[in-house]
Design a protein that fits this description.
This protein is mostly helical. The chain contains eight helices and no strands. Helix 3 packs antiparallel against helix 4 and helix 4 crosses helix 5. The longest helix is centred in the N-terminal third of the chain and has 21 residues.
Amino acid sequence: MKCRETTATDAEKAAGQEALQALMEIVNKCMMRRTSQINNKFLPQKIEFIVCVHMKESQVKLYEEVVDESNRNKRGRISSIQKLRKVVNHPDLLIQTTSSNGGLLKASQSEVSGKLHFLQLLISRFRQVSNDKLLIVSNYTQTLDLLDRYFRVKKYGTIRLDGTMSSRARTKVVDRFNEE
């Protein structure tokens, strides 16, 4: 930490860099990180689309409530940003953190989330025209949990890969996904 100070000497900066390098060597032995270069060997060429989806009316109301709350409480800005991200994905993600029942998801609840409604339409159409597999990526395990519950209700077969898996289990999941 001392090497990051603006007042750090060259010797302190060098010592800090050396300590960081040693720490990275230890961490890299424990963590498996798949880079896009590794994944590109197994996946077809990526085609990317940016789709803007409107929030549903209930999401807009909840979003506005979070913004109002944030304006009243200036200290909780970062937590408000996290809340807004949850509302934009699906209101249940915010309800899960504020209610004891965990925000139970029903199949019809895709109607309260613009993104989930769009995803439902996309998957439905995709299944009509293709037998290919669909890969859905999220930065949030809570979103993956919500999608898992939704897909079970819809009886969609899924394979899940997230950071909670051991490297052995992860390899098995990747191999299973890549099977014909």
